[in-house]
Amino acid sequence: MATPKATPAEKKPAAPKKAPAVKTATAKAAPVKKPVAAKKPAAEKAPAVKKAAAKTAKPKKIGAEERYRMVEVAAYFLAERNNFKGSPVEYWTTAEAQIDVLLSK
Question: Which of 17, 92, 93, 97 is the most exposed place for a label (fewest CB within 10 A)?
């Protein structure tokens, strides 16, 4: 069976269309600039920072590998100063003693 066609009177009325918002150049607000606080000279702040850093600085703990490298370099320079004429073991033990003194400070 054929369905009866809807008549114009039976259709629901369409909602009225809204006009798109129009932006004008005068509608934009100018950005508000915040006042900039006066900066103090850097010379006044630097000493305070250095003092605080010196008080809170803790000695850095080094690992075994880093200590080994330090001893190795020190032993090389001791041997070089002596034109490599001495015993490598003596250079190494002397270098270890020197590095231990430096690290204990």
Answer: 17
